[in-house]
Amino acid sequence: MTDVSAAAAGQAASLTVRDNRTGTEYDLPIVDGTIKAADLGKIRTADDEPGLAVYDPGFVNTASCRSAVTYIDGEKGILEYRGYPIEQLAEKSNFLEVAYLLIHGELPTKAEYEAWVHEITYHTFVHENVKGFMHGFRYDAHPMGMLMASVGALSTFYPDARNIDDPDNRHMQIVRMIAKMPTLGAWAFRHAQGKPFIYPDNELSYTENFLSMLFRMSEQKFAADPRLAKALDVLLILHADHEQNCSTNAVRSVGSSQVDPYSAVAAGIGALYGPLHGGANEAVLRMLKRIGTKENIPAFIEGVKNGNERLMGFGHRVYKNYDPRAKLIKKACDDVFEVTGVNPLLEIAQELEKIALEDEYFVKRKLYPNVDFYSGLIYEALQFPPEMFTVLFAIGRTPGWLAQWNELIQDKEQKIARPKQIYTGDRTLTFVPAEERWA
Ligand code: ACO
């Protein structure tokens, strides 16, 4: 019985636990479908013994916060930002409006929207010294490493960012970070290509300006194809938040120490960099290239089923159904390929998806395409090298990280993140100095 139906039946919403070591029974309140881990801590065999704890590697069944930012129903494939379905936002909104929604909790009025766009647009420039240290990276530096380092370094340019209890100050850093992320991402890209850095163009929209900083050469003004700019904008919306995923958890965990938001977001970028998280789209593309032709798919699938490797872009901790973002990205593929011509790897991806969705191994484990399965194909069509894919993800995710960070800072229930452990090592050994051990 859920706590709601228990309440309706006039029963207390609680869980009775009997500790068979002592025979004691405990009533633990159930609130919002959860019990408090701290309540379990009251269960102990003696006053001087440690209380019962929860062992949950990877936090597969632990709620770490209350949040009103993003709702996901993984079984039904539902994703909503602040209550609005992702499908409607992707179709009818734009990235900066969605960023406003995530940060402020509601849609802007016309005046609020215009002020927000103005603020973001006029904070896109970075301090000239940023150029200097970006040049200092090696020619083959991964752009995610450069982004992580440069976002972390912004904390040194804005030391006031540590005043996290001041709402106006938090707003300023949020605007700065959303505004500057495309500048840093584009410069990381240009560095790898040995091309000059392009300054922001404040007459362009957020996405057009990003494309300009990435691709402009000698032309006076960069004119992006509006269909490509729109597709990129949709991709940014789809990536904007995803509740307590690995990188958001990193932002919250580091942010819980009350450090400035640049340092917290740099930690999120580090988490996103990994191949099981945002790095998956890069891995998908490499996988598709390695498979090469449709004929090689059955052998590849056999290898996956034998545990030799994973089918990248498939599976999700939360979605046990088709990832709604993957559906929307598949649609965006058509718009992009209309401009750029079809990416030959699309055929392999579609065939791979078809085979996997019919195969018992994937069906039984509820493994469906996730957001990363098709996004890499679009990014490649837009001329991005695979190393840049996760940078695009990070730019899209920035409003989500900041909305979650802003919520964390104002949440009176939050404490510094500090999990317990189950210690498995030796104890009370006697140290013998090296000279004696090696004698
Ligand atoms: N290919 C083959 N088998 C898989 C895959 C996959 N992509 N994903 C999960 N499985 C299998 C596991 O081997 C396991 O099988 P078993 O029960 O026989 O041991 C079962 O499905 C459950 O897998 P877990 O690893 O326990 O699932 P978890 O929730 O921990 O992992 C994850 C989720 C990391 C996303 C996983 O599905 C995966 O590695 N996918 C590939 C990488 C990827 O696409 N990541 C992007 C995720 S979306 C994002 O971060 C934006």
> What are the segments in which pLDDT stays under 50 over at least 5 consecutive residues?
none
Proportion in helices: 40-55%
Strand content: 5-15%
Question: How much is the average pLDDT?
Answer: 94
H/E element order: HEEHEEEHHHHHHHHHHHHHHHHHH
List the ligand species: acetyl coenzyme *A
Rg, Å, rounded: 24 Å
Number of strands: 5
Strand order of the largest sheet: 3-4-5
The major beta sheet can be summarized as: 3 strands, antiparallel
Query: What structural class do the secondary elements suggest?
Result: mainly alpha
N- to C-terminal distance: 67 Å
Morphology: globular
SS summary, helix count: 20
Q: How would you describe this protein?
A:
Belongs to the citrate synthase family. Pfam families: Citrate_synt (PF00285). Pathway: Carbohydrate metabolism; tricarboxylic acid cycle; isocitrate from oxaloacetate: step 1/2. Keywords: Transferase, Tricarboxylic acid cycle. It catalyses: oxaloacetate + acetyl-CoA + H2O = citrate + CoA + H(+). The protein is mainly alpha-helical. Helix content is 52%, strand content 5%. It contains 20 helices and 5 strands. The strands form 2 sheets. It has a 3-stranded antiparallel β-sheet with strand order 3-4-5. Strands 1-2 form a two-stranded antiparallel ribbon. Strand 3 (70-73) and strand 4 (78-81) form a beta hairpin. Helix 4 (95-104) runs parallel beside helix 19 (389-410). It is globular. The N and C termini lie far apart (67 Å). Bound molecules: acetyl coenzyme *A (ACO). The site of acetyl coenzyme *A (ACO) has 18 residues, from loops.
